[in-house]
Amino acid sequence: MRRILTSLVLFLFTSSVLFAQSTTGRIEGRIQSQKGESLPGISVGLEGTTLGSTTDEEGKFLIKSIPAGNYTMVISGIGYESVKQTISIAAQQVLPVFMRLNTSDFTLAQVEITGSKAGNYLEREGTTATKMEAHLSTVPQSVQVLSRRAMDQLQVVRVEDAMRNVSGVSVETGFGGRTDIFQIRGFRTDQTSIFKNGFRNPARTYRESANVQQIEVMKGPASVLYGVSDPGGLINITTKKPTAYTFQSIQLTGNNFGLVRPSVDLGGTIGEEKNFKYRLNGLYERSESYRDFVKTKRYFVAPSVTYDFSPNTSLSVEAELLNHNQPSDRGIFAVNGKIADVPRSRSLGEPDNYSFYQNRLVQYNLTHRLNDAWSLRHAMNFNYGTETRKLVEQTTLVKNSDRLINRRYQDQYTFDRYFATQNEVYGKFNTGTDIAHRTVAGVEYSSFTLDLNVKRAAYDILDIYNPEYSTKPKPVNGTATSQDYRDRTQNVGFYLQDFITIRQRLNVLLGGRFDIFDYRSEDYFGQDTTTQRNYAFNPRIGLLYEVYGPLSAYANYSTGFQTEVGRTLEGDTFEPLKTQQLEGGIKLGLFQDRLNLTTSYFRIKKSNISAVDPRDVNFRVQVGEILSEGAEVDVTGEILPGLNLIATYSFIDALIKSDGVTTSGTRFQNVSPHNFTFWTTYELQDGLLKGLGIGGGFTSVQSRPGDINDTFRLPGYTKVEATIFYRAKRFNVSVNGKNLTDEYYYDGAQSATGIMPGAPLTVIGTVGFNF
């Protein structure tokens, strides 16, 4: 660990010295209309020079290599009033510019984008950590963003394909390998801490990637703004939004395991005033798998609209409809501390296993700008999902056997509903001449209801080395109810945060949230009802100081909570699980801020874990504690025009101190101490082959425990990938090879009876057309 930290410090020092030799600065920013819509094609230049740029489809621009001095910046575009502004640029300075343009007296002509613009590879701004748009280099916390352009080059079909490229994040199997489960900084992150557009997004299937614009990963507990939070961090998916320009795009993706995935993405405006904007994403997916009996059929439609009532008031509404048909797959077994030596295609279920999931989502977002300083936001989210499962699955090893397993038949129905509303006020003001404030205050209400009914019956015995399937009828009429309950949780949270900038060099982030949590469980099978109320207050403080030019140092302290249901021997309800994080690090912009590097050290402690009460084994006491600490490095950006890079490293020392079950000092399940990822692409910028690109990379994971007691190990592996692609104005094509060396590895394990082998050599290709 000491050698790693020493090497890291030397690297940062050398990089900062090299960068300090630059005598130029740069300007980057975003141009919008008074309605808040992004304006593409706006010219931004420095008067009297040849330096300038044009905004992209997101209204963003960049002017680099600007000699230190004073300039007049000119912003102009057809249909908008020109703006001139005096600016001053210092050496190594990055000057942010955000401006809204007024329309001119004549009508703006329709802006039509027909090329295959993919946006920035490096996303410099995010909203997850602060609930407001902020440059990530100014936020005193580790936040990583995966852009749409990077996801396209990686040929992301599932969200997990993207998440492998964030430090400290690993993929785990969950719900029988049919939904998104991750580990961040050693802690399991499931439905509780995966969000969509700032709202919690419970789902029992894979979240669709077709309408994803970017993914933000906020490291550490997020309770200060979001309430209940897993200790490791929060994942927020931002969806594609309606556009002020017209475009249509279709594409077809396929792979060597029978994947057929046509999709459409289109957007534009309706009406002469262009107050009404729309976006539509849709796809159909059909696929076989490298796993026996696992077939997928999937339908997805996601419309969204935005209506501007006035330059100050806007309403956005979006919806998702998803149908997903894919049987559960719990993988293979470990026997006597070793993973069974069977083909990675081996399934322990039945060919006619059936699972069907549907999800419906509606969100709206209403914003109103009171004046240049204050604005209001009211938003709502409603999500419901149903799942039906009729299947045969493995349970346990037959006693005194090393190859025979017991299987059961299960008939399960799940119905969940999630409603949430957020009401917030935002303010920008100064106290004195050197202190600027950006403040958000809000109240959130949420309600989650889960109905679950499970019927089970013993089925048969299967030889994992020589399976014989479908040997007997399913005991459909012989099942007995094993679970039948309704859980309902309601939460009210009040939060306040102030993001303070002092003399443009010191950023202070102060915040706190108070939550009231109510839980009610009705067990129809056991004829029992449980109720519980908890309160929690969680603060956060963060400091970031601009040491020199692009080099900043930061530190933060934050707390979080998770609900823990139960009662002590004395009859008292359990306190929430508590989390504390200490984090510090360095943020550095290299190559004139085209490449961003973030390094961090973290220490996360989770306490109040329940253990068996030695006075009465029928009760539990909250005495357990677990600890995860380590270091991370994330490097993302464009080294040279067309040369892009994502590289990450994480060291995670995650240990169980005491939880009443596991031996003290045991490492966390599925957590590798050392992880590396590397991905780079180069695209030709001119000439006859302009748009042609190649790239490649690898993922390297160390050996890690396969269960909570570390009774068997998932071996380490290195997986190699490569890509070749071509992008033209109206056409794009790409081919990716994944696991090129056909490495036999394991994605993760739920237990010794549920270990998921990773995919073998896979070739995936996409062809797309833009109109």
TrEMBL record:
<protein>
    <submittedName>
        <fullName>TonB-dependent siderophore receptor</fullName>
    </submittedName>
</protein>
<dbReference type="Pfam" id="PF13715">
    <property type="entry name" value="CarbopepD_reg_2"/>
</dbReference>
<keyword id="KW-0732">Signal</keyword>
<dbReference type="Pfam" id="PF00593">
    <property type="entry name" value="TonB_dep_Rec_b-barrel"/>
</dbReference>
<keyword id="KW-0998">Cell outer membrane</keyword>
<keyword id="KW-1134">Transmembrane beta strand</keyword>
<feature type="domain" description="TonB-dependent receptor plug">
    <location>
        <begin position="137"/>
        <end position="233"/>
    </location>
</feature>
<dbReference type="GO" id="GO:0030246">
    <property type="term" value="F:carbohydrate binding"/>
</dbReference>
<dbReference type="InterPro" id="IPR036942">
    <property type="entry name" value="Beta-barrel_TonB_sf"/>
</dbReference>
<keyword id="KW-0472">Membrane</keyword>
<feature type="domain" description="TonB-dependent receptor-like beta-barrel">
    <location>
        <begin position="309"/>
        <end position="740"/>
    </location>
</feature>
<feature type="signal peptide">
    <location>
        <begin position="1"/>
        <end position="20"/>
    </location>
</feature>
<dbReference type="InterPro" id="IPR039426">
    <property type="entry name" value="TonB-dep_rcpt-like"/>
</dbReference>
<keyword id="KW-0408">Iron</keyword>
<keyword id="KW-0406">Ion transport</keyword>
<keyword id="KW-0675">Receptor</keyword>
<dbReference type="GO" id="GO:0015891">
    <property type="term" value="P:siderophore transport"/>
</dbReference>
<dbReference type="GO" id="GO:0038023">
    <property type="term" value="F:signaling receptor activity"/>
</dbReference>
<keyword id="KW-0813">Transport</keyword>
<dbReference type="InterPro" id="IPR000531">
    <property type="entry name" value="Beta-barrel_TonB"/>
</dbReference>
<keyword id="KW-0798">TonB box</keyword>
<dbReference type="InterPro" id="IPR012910">
    <property type="entry name" value="Plug_dom"/>
</dbReference>
<dbReference type="GO" id="GO:0015344">
    <property type="term" value="F:siderophore uptake transmembrane transporter activity"/>
</dbReference>
<dbReference type="Pfam" id="PF07715">
    <property type="entry name" value="Plug"/>
</dbReference>
<keyword id="KW-0812">Transmembrane</keyword>
<keyword id="KW-0410">Iron transport</keyword>
<comment type="similarity">
    <text>Belongs to the TonB-dependent receptor family.</text>
</comment>
<dbReference type="InterPro" id="IPR013784">
    <property type="entry name" value="Carb-bd-like_fold"/>
</dbReference>
<dbReference type="InterPro" id="IPR010105">
    <property type="entry name" value="TonB_sidphr_rcpt"/>
</dbReference>
<dbReference type="InterPro" id="IPR037066">
    <property type="entry name" value="Plug_dom_sf"/>
</dbReference>
<dbReference type="GO" id="GO:0009279">
    <property type="term" value="C:cell outer membrane"/>
</dbReference>
